[in-house]
Each structure stands twice: as C-alpha cells, then as structure tokens.
Specification:
324 residues, mainly beta, Elongation Factor Tu (Ef-tu), domain 3, four-stranded antiparallel sheet, globular
Length: 324
C-alpha cells in the first residue's frame, strides 16, 4: 500500500517515519462501499475504504469566523459557530515505534498559505518535499493504521457529516491578571460592619502555625485565560462545501479568526465502539448518521454533492446520513 521514502531517527529505540507517498485512496465512500486494497510494503497494512468503529480519522485545522443563530424544526433559536477551512492539506504521515514496540500513527495537517519569507528554511524544505505551498499552522492528529491520507490531499468541510459530534480544541481568550472574584467567582466580602476597603479581597489564604503555609492549588488572583481548551461533543448542524464552512452548535474557544482543531468526538466514538462490541450496530454512530467519509473528506469528494448540506436535507444530499 505504501511506497514511501523514509527517514529514521538514529538509535534502536525510537523510529520516526515521515511518509511522503501516494496512498491508494477511495474518494467516494457510501454505506454500501466495499473495501479496496492494493499491494503494500512489508511494514504496512492494507487501508480499507470503509470506516469501522475501531478507526480513528484525522482532524482538520479551521479558522473561527464568528457566531450566528439558526432555528430548528420547532422554531427554537440556537447559537452556532462558523468554522472555515483554509487550504487545509496533508503534509506528512507519521509512524513512530515506541519503547514498548507499539506503533504510533498520525497524520500531519497544515493550513493557511503564507509567503515563504514567513517560514523557516527547515519548514520550507518540509513543505517542498510534501509538494504543498508554505503554510502558517501545522498540527498532528493521532490516527489508526488504516486512516493514513495521501500527502498533498486537500481536506474539505465534507470531512464531517451533519448530525455527528466533534471536539474543538483552541486557545481561549486571554484576560490578563485578574482577581479572585472574576477568576474564581468569589462572592466578595461584606460592604458594611467595619470592612475597610477590602470588599473584593480573597480573605484568608492560610494559617499561622499549623500548617504554616499556603496549600498548593489555592484559588488566588492570577492569570486568567490564554490556555488551550477542548470543548467536547459539539454537534455539526450544517456544512458548506463551496466555502468550506462547518456550522457547529454552541460556542467555541478563541477569538474570531483564531486557529482551531476539529476532530471526531472522542467520547461519542468510544460509546459507539462499545456498542459495536456488544453487537448493537444501530448505535455505533450518532442518530441518523449512517457513515462518515473515510479516511478523509476531500475536495474531490465535495465536488460530487450540493454545496450546502444540513440536517434537514441530508437524506437527499449526502450518502453518509439518513433523514429524520
């Protein structure tokens, strides 16, 4: 399956392999698609074209474009966040042999074209070897051995299906140094009975002789925000393959135009895998989702379907999801 030129790190324990190769890839995946296979090297296995509950797909890098509102079938209004893919391409497939001889598989994805002068020479050589232009953001997503994607593949919003759940990872908005009331929701101190200019203070933070110190983890004033946050189980309600937009229900960390990582919801997939092992095949994927693109949703796949696919029209517009 893989005909790759590999480079390994010196040493017998750690072996890192970046695969820049053309993998056999099925562009169109439907609920009745059969697995395709081809000849492979001794160190790799055949990649099926059909998703299985044991498969872990790659994620994508998107930009948060803002929020809007949508209405459901009952007329209830709910908030959605719009995420957009910007030239999101696969730059490498990674195989790493760990100390316990298990193999770590990952797909490296890069997003947003930039001028070459804004990247280092090392990264420019990496992008040139992958056959893609210089990119601004590069991330690595762990996958299973059957979910490697050909290097240079351009990912599309059709990678996700309306109705499925996703996890969104992003850096939250930094709010600087804040007091305990804003940072930890302390109620503050009284405004009367002799309290002098200490209304928003933290109060007692420790004891004198026993234990004579402040316990680690004490809620005190400090930096608020600016850390990586993972919001789990957000539902995809609509995709726009023409503009590469993903509409997710709810809020997403970060400021507008911030880079976010979007992947299949780990908890939802774990529940589906558990149901599959018990023989409950109808509970493997979320409700009304019958299949998902595997190993990835590409630009070529998106060109075969209407530009907008939502939860209301997915029966006629997508082979991956059924109607209500």
């Amino acid at each position: 399956m893989l005909k790759a030129s590999t480079s390994r790190l010196a040493g017998p324990i750690w072996q890192i392999r970046y695969i820049h190769a053309s993998l056999p890839y099925a562009a169109e995946v439907s609920s009745n698609a059969s697995a395709s296979s081809s000849s492979s090297s001794p160190s790799t296995s055949t990649t099926p074209a059909k998703w299985t509950p044991n498969s872990v797909r790659t994620g994508v890098i998107a930009r948060k474009r803002g929020m809007t509102a949508m209405w459901d079938d009952f007329g209830a209004k709910f908030p959605v966040t719009i995420l957009q893919l910007e030239e999101c391409q696969v730059t490498a497939n990674v195989e790493t042999v760990r100390k316990d001889q298990s193999v770590y598989h990952a797909v490296q994805v890069a997003s947003t074209n930039v001028a070459e002068r804004k990247q280092s020479y090392a990264m420019l050589g990496h992008f040139k070897r992958a056959g893609v232009p210089a990119k601004r953001m590069v991330k690595e997503f762990p996958v299973t051995a059957d979910a490697h994607v050909p290097v240079g593949t351009t990912l599309s919003a059709i990678h996700f299906v309306p109705g499925q759940d996703v996890d969104v990872i992003a850096k939250g908005i930094g709010k600087g140094f804040q007091g305990v009331m804003k940072r930890w929701n302390f109620s503050g101190q009284t405004k009367s009975h002799g309290n002098s200019l200490n209304h928003r203070g933290a109060g007692s933070t420790g004891q004198n002789q026993d234990p004579g110190r402040v316990w680690p983890g004490k809620k005190m004033a400090g930096r608020l925000g600016g850390k990586q946050i993972t919001v789990q189980n957000l539902q995809v309600v609509r995709i726009d393959t023409k503009l590469d937009l993903i509409f997710v229900k709810g809020n997403v960390p970060g400021i507008d135009d911030a880079f976010v990582q979007v992947r299949d919801a780990k908890k939802t997939m774990a529940i589906g895998r558990h149901n599959w092992e018990k023989g409950q095949d109808e509970k493997v994927l979320p409700k009304n989702v019958v299949d998902i693109p595997f190993p990835a949703g590409t630009k070529e796949l998106a060109a075969q379907y209407p530009p907008v696919i939502s939860a209301k029209t997915r029966r006629i517009n997508s082979p991956f999801a059924a109607g209500e």
